[in-house]
Design a protein that fits this description.
Low-confidence stretches: none
Radius of gyration: 14 Å
CATH class: Alpha Beta
Structural class: alpha+beta
CATH topology: Aminopeptidase
Number of strands: 6
Helix content: 10-25%
Strand content: 35-45%
CATH superfamily: Gcn5-related N-acetyltransferase (GNAT)
Order of helices and strands: EEEHEHEHE
Length: about 110
């Protein structure tokens, strides 16, 4: 049921990356599952996916994105995200936050 929330990058019918947008109340959306094939990293595929998600978010009336990451904070910070806390997450997302993963919370106004 969530497959429609995903955007993908393909080259010659081979999947090289994907990202998803999950809407929450009050104009907030989660950018999730952003991944690019390691052999394709640095090619701009991640940027293209982020731009697609941002465009879709705007179409859906979302003005703030958040992302949870354990390893790519630097990538998101370079693209306009700022550090936030679990307390900044929508209430229903806070309830399912996985404390064991220790994900960093980042947000971006779009």
């Amino acid at each position: 049921r969530d497959i429609a929330r995903f955007s993908v990058i393909e080259h010659d019918k081979v999947l090289f990356g994907c990202a998803a947008l999950f809407p929450f109340p009050n104009g907030v959306g989660e950018l999730a599952c952003l991944v690019v094939d390691p052999n394709s990293q640095g090619s701009g595929d991640g940027e293209r996916l982020l731009k697609r998600i941002e465009a879709r978010a705007k179409q859906e009336g979302i003005n703030t994105l958040f992302v949870l990451t354990t390893r790519t904070e630097h990538w998101f910070l370079k693209r306009g995200f700022v550090r936030a806390t679990v307390d900044d997450l929508p209430e229903e997302r806070k309830q399912i936050y996985n404390w064991d993963r220790k994900s960093m919370v980042l947000t971006k106004r779009i």
